[in-house]
Amino acid sequence: MQMTDTTPPNMTISDEKAIEISQMNKWYGSFHVLRDINLTVYRGERIVICGPSGSGKSTMIRCINALEEHQDGTIVVDGTRLTSDLKNIDKIRSEVGMCFQHFNLFPHLTILENCTLAPIWVRKVPKKEAVETAMHYLEKVKIPDQANKYPGQLSGGQQQRVAIARSLCMKPRVMLFDEPTSALDPEMIKEVLDTMIELAEEGMTMLCVTHEMGFARQVANRVIFMDRGQIVEQNEPEAFFNNPQSDRTKLFLSQILGH
Amino acid sequence: MIDRPVEYPAVDHEVAYLRTEEAPTLQPPGSEIGFRGWLWRNIFASMADYTSAPAAVMSLFMTAITLFTGYAIVWMAWTLLDFTVFSATFTAAEGLKRDACLPNPGACWPFIEAKWYQFMYGFYPPEDVWRVNVCFAVLAAGIGWLIFGPSHRGKVAAFMLFGYPVLAYVLLNGMPVEDNGDLGHIFSGVWFPAIVAAVLFAGWWLADAGRLGDVGSAFAPVLLMGVIVVAIFAVLPLVTMAIDLALGTEVVETNKWGGLTVTLVVAIAGIVVSLPMGMLLALGRRSSAPIIKWSSIIFIEVVRGIPLISVLFFASAMLPYFLEPGVDFNKLLRAMIGVMLFASAYMAEVIRGGLQAMPKGQYEGGMSLGLSYWQQMRLIIMPQALTTVIPGIVNTFIGLFKDTTLVLIISIFDLLGILMATLKDPEWATPTTAYTGYLTIALIYWIFCFGMSRYSVHMERKLDRSHH
Ligand SMILES: Nc1ncnc2c1ncn2[C@@H]1O[C@H](COP(=O)(O)OP(=O)(O)O)[C@@H](O)[C@H]1O
Ligand SMILES: [Mg+2]
Known about the structure:
Mean pLDDT of chain B: 84
Domain ABC transmembrane type-1 (chain B): 260-456
Subcellular location (chain B): Cell inner membrane; Cell membrane
Radius of gyration of chain B: 31 Å
Strand content of chain A: 15-25%
Order of helices and strands of chain A: EEEHEEHEHHHEHEHEEHH
Oligomer: heterodimer
Family (chain B): Belongs to the binding-protein-dependent transport system permease family. HisMQ subfamily.
Structural class of chain B: mainly alpha
Number of helices of chain B: 17
Low-confidence stretches of chain A: 1-5
Shape of chain A: globular
Distance between the termini of chain B: 44 Å
Low-confidence stretches of chain B: none
Largest interface: A-B, 34 and 26 residues
Radius of gyration of chain A: 18 Å
Order of helices and strands of chain B: HHHHHHHHHHHHHHHHH
Helix content of chain A: 25-40%
Helix content of chain B: 55-70%
Largest sheet of chain A: 6 strands, mixed
Pfam families (chain B): BPD_transp_1
Mean pLDDT of chain A: 91
Bound molecules: adenosine-5'-diphosphate, magnesium ion
Strand content of chain B: under 5%
Number of strands of chain B: 0
GO molecular function (chain B): transmembrane transporter activity
Shape of chain B: flat
């Protein structure tokens, strides 16, 4: 991956808050899985979250679109506060796109149907318009010719790109990625990362849990390190990688970078 | 990183290798291909090894088994053929009846011919039998369309689920305008369900738009189903009136229905009701709301724990004691409700198996796109869960189809019941009448069940998305 030295014009960060998490705590039973999480994401930010397995990265970003509920503190997404009210939850979920490690495409629907399902049923977009939007995004992720196949007929990298297109069809204002490349064969990782880089260059607000440190250096404006349910350290990528402060960060970086 | 140098043991043979010429692609050995290959692999190979004593004993043993099985198959086929064809009576001269069959030791086919009408329709009046035939024809056309139809399958399926039962009821039962031409009672039957449907519809409209909060939205689909059911009741008298004015259909009381007609009515009612009921119960059993969860569990476990036959018997023998004298709750309807409840409980467990097999990611994929609970169930979870359990669903349907024979214990004459009634006819009493009859209806049951089984295989293939 080559490094871009000029920031594309769209990759600017506004001072409008896209996500605001304050003093959030979460428990699984009596296990305190997330401790005192405070995180404000401004529109246009590209944040990479890393940390050891089991540190609560997935749990944290899943709280943002209420796939997990939190017991304490507040999460405000796009000005809407997350409460147990289903209406707010549905609204936030339709504004926030999410890509999973295992894609979670719907295997009984074609690629095109995967992409038009939510716009038609949630946004009530007319079918013809939904198909046009879907084809637009499928072209963007470079697989328009697979539109009528089923997910099972595509490679892992293609499936993950469909999953990204499927989220984009809802015109989300924020995208969450939970280890989008960890289930992929090495030769497919690049095509997915390229898609994500393009998305970042268009100004999408993104939170990515990933261990692709090249991607973090190139795209992120902020890297967050989590350990044992807490945000331990965050910094700009250069400083984060070259000059980590906490011992836990240093240990983690030496483990994933040092060979 | 490992800093310490590792000593690996030395290898004392040549490891470097480079292929210089392409290996040819060859035909498989002769024993693998064609009919001969098949015969060899599946029949003769196991009898042909005499290289050692144990292998020879095994081969001889296999030879014995093969010979015995071959003999048994030929013997059974011959017996059946002899009974049904060679020693059978095919025609009876006018008025001969049993005397035509007595000389022959085989099947008495004229008996079947004479009683065929009853096998099919029971005691349905012959002048009205076209109504049953129209029902059968529409059913066959609908199913045919669902299997082979080029397009609009969804609409046809919706008609078969909601429209067809109404049509079938109107045709089979009839609901005529009274002779004095008084239409008042028909409209009096309309306004009450119409108002209830309107109220439910208003409730659904409010709930679906979220105006009644979360709990309200959760009940929206139930309300909508209520609207449909009640609306059917409201529309029914109007439809029947229209049909009656056009055709003059008489009421045919259900105690005149019989034979295959009753079997199909009970089985189809059970099938049509048990699938949606089973889905709701299965979802209910997995619900996080304790009331819904426990009522589903109690329903399923209670119904599954009681033999159908005892419920039918209770409904027929005991219910009259609890009802006021003169109130006659239709016997066929009672049996149908019993069968529907039973099938629903079994179906719920089959479908729950399918739900259990759904990966969590499918729910999360739907949730993350903002789909509501019912949208997730309808669009993502149920289609996949039902597909995985097609064999179990069809198994339940087949079981249900055959269990309908139990209605004969409350003197409803289904196909088997009619046969047993006609066997009592002394004019046809011969030593082989019963065998002929049982063989015939066994064949009829088998055709339907095998049809369902093939349909299940067809659907499995069609819906299989795993390796295209
Ligand atoms: N549904 C659950 N119930 C109980 N514990 C859970 C559940 N999901 C995750 N955990 C625990 O919470 C911790 C954080 O998990 P997770 O957020 O998936 O970590 P990460 O994504 O950083 O690897 C882990 O210790 C995990 O075992
Ligand atoms: Mg994780």
